[in-house]
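All the exercises in this workshop are built on plain-text protein records. A record pairs a protein's sequence with a compact description of its fold. Read left to right, the backbone structure tokens trace the chain's path through space. Once this layout is familiar, the rest of the handout is easier to follow. Here is such a record, shown just as it appears in the course material:
>
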Amino acid sequence: MAKTYNNPYTLDGLYKFHPGVSKAKIRATKALIESAMQGDHIALGKVQEAMTTSDMPFNFAQLTNLAFYEQFDAAERTWNQIAGDRVSPTLDKVRLYSLKLDWDEGTLGDGDPEFVSPNISEGSAYPYAYVSGEEGQGAGIKKAGFKTDFTFEAFHSDPLGFIQALPGLMLDAALNREEYDVYSALTGGVGASQQLQAATIAETGETVVANAPLSRESLIAAIQQLKNREFNGRKIQISGRIRVVVPIGRGDYVKFITNSLIPVTVDDGPIRYNVSGYSPLAELDVVESEYVTGSNWYLIPAPGTVRRPVLEHLTWSVQRAPELRVSNVTGNYVGGGVVDPFEGSFENDSITFRIRQYGGAILWTPNAVLWSTGAGS
């Protein structure tokens, strides 16, 4: 569902007005470009003229940002199947704050576990729980972007082609950055202690070697091991779905083995029946990613199924959306007057656009991830 904004010209503050930009000019720019794209040759001529003799380039950049972000926000992603989202007010290292419950169970709490608030007898002082911050495994928030340019002659030979292509090209690049950040935090944040260990499956008697390749048995063992993981002495309780993350092209095989049923033998007096059984992998959902390579595969709880955050995508509150700018290093006309960006730069008649975005990802709880190299050793 498309999001609605109280101010569609700034998307409620995501994009600010720059000099030369106004609501009236944005509306006029939009109407002129739409007419040109519908085949109005007079409107096309006006677009070419206005891009080089008015504030239209700046309003075009604002209009492109607005159209781009609405598409960007609604675009399909795979990272949001394995990660939550966190907005940070700072570019410093992101920290996760929690309460350290460190009271003496011998005098308070009547033997309750350390993580349970203790009973307080009449007249007794309350114990302290201290706030502590921790840095997760990941790069935090970083700046990313690039520039692209084209010549004055190229724009005038195909202005509508450029106008149509730019938002899509920006969209693809910005989405690639998000995907890369999240999957890099996942794959780079786990190590040997999170790998699949050798095991015997009690229900079937099958044995699984350490770092086993993908199979029904290795996935069953992986789920069992993941659900027995601990953080700070407590089991990591998963209250929903689990994602299995695999390289592109391996998803169909995972779907095949997760939908296969284990036969169940039923004895009814002297008669023995073999009936279709159950799937111990029914709680798994498959996610394919180009950033998972080789024979590696990963299990991670779906976002929101564990009380403690596991993997999160980060955005910066100061600039939450990718931003497009057009360069106006064009010099001045002889006798005065600023030259607009679509006239081309002073240096070589090129028109330069730049995209900037802030983001990142962080793996807070590596022990809530189980992975295998698939090498069987």
User: Anything to note?
Assistant: Helices lie at 23-37, 41-53, 56-74, 152-157, 159-189, 216-227, 251-258. Residues 107-111 have pLDDT under 50 and may be disordered. The chain is about 30% helix and 25% strand.
